[in-house]
Amino acid sequence: MKSFQRIVIAAVAALIVLGLAWELWLAPLRPGGSMLALKVVPLALALPGLVRGRVRTFQWWSMAILLYLCEGLVRATSDRGTSATLGAIETALAGVAFLGILAFVRSARRRP
Known about the structure:
Blueprint: H1 3-26, H2 41-52, H3 55-78, H4 82-110
Helix pairs in contact: 1-2, 1-4, 3-4
């Protein structure tokens, strides 16, 4: 497994954990959790393809991960307290995943 692939897998796994913890326990929109926890389902569905190193999955996620980046930016700048901090963490993780995806696809294209 390549190092860029490991970085992407770690960032996506961290986004799954962060999304669940955020929306169920740390700072849910409603007490007791919110349906926004379902935002991790696409990440969980993509994880097997990322682990297998499928370039098509990485290409697809190069665009989809930007939705998580945007959500993190919006929540980091519009929310207050814990939710704003979690939004900043989500932004950082999504940014790392995006850069890792680009590096992985670029290195995969160089291989004959």
